Model the fold of this input.
Amino acid sequence: MKRDNLLFFIEQIVDLSIANQSLCDGRRENEARIKELEDELPCPNKDLKNAAKLYQKELVKAEKRIKELEERVGRIDELTNEVYGEAPDHPARFTLNNVVYFEDAAGYFMIANDGATDFTVTITHQEYIDSLNHYLKQEDPRDYPEDPSYE
Done:
């Protein structure tokens, strides 16, 4: 009887061992199939990462554009302050073609240089306004960036 019980347990162990091996093989096959299916399905995390990268690139472009616009506004403010000074209705002092134009209570003047000495010359109001208009129309390369890729 002990021998029958022992044989019975041995058969049970062998049967369980075979069943266990079969389950392990099935589990490996299922894991491999799940991996294949995961690779075939679009992964939302990858899409989110790609969207985040694209957003980051656009954010960098936008920040660059904002900086360029701020520099341009600064340049406009610089020109405005240079031309108008503190009283916006009365132009003060500006430089055009290496000649300094200015006005004060005594009239309108220009300062020119012949290479050795500065000459201050009295000019008419119209000459001053013509020079001012020409100065305001001149373009600064900082006002027009060369790379329009942000548009």
Notes: The radius of gyration is 42 Å.
